[in-house]
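hiii so um. not sure if this is the right channel but i have a protein structure encoded as tokens and i wanna go backwards to a sequence. like what aa goes where. can anyone help
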């Protein structure tokens, strides 16, 4: 049974968009803050750079199970579609719900961060933070409402501007004389296990977002080839940029100064170029944050679209406008994002949903193994090398981070479980009212 034109997305996005969403999904304010934590955990310049390089290698390994699944199952919806195929509707529903709500909450948080950066520039100082955050979410909604080509082009442009801004910043830091900052009086911090673990967690989060193209598999041309190219090419580009940023920091600041800084990039820029540094770093941050906000709004609509098409959400959410946007899904996304941005509940939800992000990648790693066994004949345009080693490494790392998160914050982790199962009555209702041939086709 083929889908009607009203429920079909448009395959109008190319490889440039796919690479852009990897770069745009990964690079945010994290690279401006994480170097200080990494330097604290690994207080040696060469060791610090090695950790950043190994971070890129690990993320590429961590991505392999998801890329194999995504290339073999090029369906819209991100992790939801892959978990649905590997585990069936119940686990698929829970994975989709957790992913969607987490993205909605973080979009609200990102919008508030954008508003804070706007105020830092001295703009719209009389406007409440919530109002500016809401205006950003609304602007992303307008861009996505117009159509897929427009939202895709805006994402490619934003990611390009973000990359150019970071390259300019790196160049300005390298122009400064070596060791421009005065030598610190304190000795380098001693290396400790606790600081190293905190540094690795910061590194992991700073590389997060590499799986963004998986949400758009039905809209990317030749996903069986371009998904792997985009993910691994994007991770490689980001790793080089991150290494460039950290090498430039070490050119300007001693390791002791980096380790003691909450915003090392801004500190180095202030030493290298003077008072204009804050403006430059803030502008780069604004572009980074706005690009991620637009990407997440775009991705979230594909989750609800895919779940509605499979009968797990109301079927109206699967209707697609002529421009390629599931507009009812977009409106639902905007309502939640605006609520989170305006109420402040997003901070709680971000803390609660941190473990669920790790659970998602645990599911995808296990799903890759499960489908290798259940469906060995499934065409796999991209097969992970050295199988099952990449899956084992991915599962081990995500499980270790999940355990560390639960031990550190058991209260929010318990609420994660509560919110995860909260919509199960909706799942049961959908089984009676919405589910039909679309779900059978998906499985």
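sure thing!! here u go:
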């Amino acid at each position: 049974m083929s889908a009607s034109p009203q429920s079909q997305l448009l395959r109008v996005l190319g490889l440039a968009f796919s690479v852009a969403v990897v770069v745009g999904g990964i690079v945010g304010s994290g690279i401006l803050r994480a170097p200080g934590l990494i330097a604290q955990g690994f207080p040696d310049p060469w060791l610090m750079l090695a950790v950043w390089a190994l971070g890129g290698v690990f993320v590429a390994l961590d991505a392999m199970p998801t890329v194999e699944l995504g290339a073999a199952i090029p369906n819209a919806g991100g992790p939801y579609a892959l978990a649905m195929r590997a585990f069936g509707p119940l686990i698929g529903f829970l994975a989709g719900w957790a992913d969607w709500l987490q993205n909605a909450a973080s979009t609200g948080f990102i919008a508030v961060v954008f508003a804070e950066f706007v105020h830092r520039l001295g703009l719209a100082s009389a406007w409440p933070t919530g109002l500016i955050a809401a205006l950003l979410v609304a602007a992303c909604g307008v861009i996505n409402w117009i159509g897929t080509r427009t939202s895709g082009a805006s994402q490619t442009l934003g990611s390009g501007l973000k990359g150019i801004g970071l390259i300019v910043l790196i160049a300005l830091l390298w122009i400064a004389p070596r060791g421009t900052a005065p030598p610190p009086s304190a000795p380098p911090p001693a290396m400790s296990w606790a600081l190293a673990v905190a540094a690795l967690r910061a590194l992991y989060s700073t590389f997060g977002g590499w799986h963004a193209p998986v949400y758009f598999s039905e809209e990317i041309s030749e996903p069986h080839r371009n998904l792997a190219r985009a993910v691994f090419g994007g991770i490689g580009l980001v790793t080089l940029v991150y290494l460039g940023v950290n090498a430039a920091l070490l050119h300007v600041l001693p390791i002791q100064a980096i380790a003691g800084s909450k915003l090392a990039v801004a500190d180095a820029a202030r030493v290298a170029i003077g008072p204009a540094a804050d403006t430059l770093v803030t502008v780069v941050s604004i572009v980074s944050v706005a690009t991620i906000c637009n990407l997440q709004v775009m991705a979230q609509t594909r989750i609800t679209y895919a779940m509605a098409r499979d009968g797990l959400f109301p079927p109206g959410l699967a209707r697609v406008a002529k421009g390629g946007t599931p507009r009812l899904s977009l409106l639902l996304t905007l309502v939640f994002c605006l609520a989170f941005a305006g109420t402040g509940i997003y901070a709680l939800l971000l803390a609660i949903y941190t473990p669920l992000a790790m659970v998602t990648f645990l599911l995808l790693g296990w799903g890759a193994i499960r489908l290798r066994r259940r469906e060995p004949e499934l065409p796999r345009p991209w097969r992970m090398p050295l199988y099952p080693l990449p899956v084992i490494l991915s599962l081990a790392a995500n499980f270790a981070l999940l355990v560390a998160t639960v031990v550190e914050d058991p209260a929010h982790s318990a609420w994660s479980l509560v919110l995860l199962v909260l919509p199960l009555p909706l799942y049961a209702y959908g089984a009676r009212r919405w589910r039909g041939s679309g779900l059978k086709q998906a499985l």
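oh and The two ends are 13 Å apart (CA to CA).
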